[in-house]
Amino acid sequence: QYTAVKIAPRYHNAPVIHVLDASKSVVVCGNLPSKDKKDDYLEEIAEEYNDIRDDYYANLKQIRTIPINDARKKRWISENENFNITKPTFLGDDILIFDPQDSTKQISTLFGLRQQTERDSNVYMYLSDFISSTTIDYIGLFALAVFNVEQEAQRLVQKETDDYSSIILKLLGDHLTEAYLLSVKYQGIRPAAGYPTKPDHTEKLTIWKLLNAKESIGIELTKSVAMQPSSAVSELYVAHPESTYFVVGKINEDQVRDYANRKGMSIKEIEKWLSSILAYDVDSQQ
């Protein structure tokens, strides 16, 4: 579906074909070079992708959202009125970060997205709901990684042609980072940028600046905001005792425009990063 909806429409001069696994590539490789089979095969693929796109956008139109300003009025509110922990401050759907040495000096902002699809609970959540809007609160940021795993894995492949040990070594690196996280005792939740509770990967750029992660411990971000080394993890700590994980889900144009304005980015750029959660067809808006 992703190939048909997101990738194929971007390529007009060459075919885009999704192959589920290597065993299925024989059919593709057999049809494309053949003068007798190629045109019919590509037409068949194009028709299949058109049907997939039509179904996708038809289902998209069935998604019902509410205006973002209405969603904000129906934010999650703690039922525990006696809970009064010292808390970072939020503004709208954004979490304002202040200098730990000077609580009057704002040094950054974590921008956020709120649930917008119609919900039976009539509650539309975002992370800032678990942050105080009136007093200074606290939020945790961290990044950690196991280093040199990729280099050793590459050496095993190139010098010893040991693919199996290379794969096992990479898995070990991933499991070591997760094992460390499981050893840390904490209250609340650990949402990560790019995941359902906080789906915008570009928020990692802000987290990296706050942590000085590249200079301090050597974890870098690629152009696509992936972490290097690959066995790296970065998350937030939100300590409210009633905090819970949730899925932002699909969002509509009004929230995208609002979010782009708050982040100082173009709507087109935001739509690129959030393409998987948009409740509308970007191409039809252009």
TrEMBL record:
- The answer on whether this UniProt entry bears the keyword Metal-binding reads yes
The UniProt keywords, alphabetically, are:
Cobalt, Metal-binding, Methyltransferase, Transferase
One Gene Ontology cellular component annotation held by this UniProt entry: cytosol
Domain AdoMet activation residue range list: 1-283
**Highest rank taxon of the organism:** Eukaryota
Gene Ontology BP annotations? homocysteine metabolic process; methylation; tetrahydrofolate metabolic process
> A GO molecular function for this record?
metal ion binding
* Name this polypeptide is given: AdoMet activation domain-containing protein
Q: Which source organism does the UniProt entry give?
A: Rotaria sordida
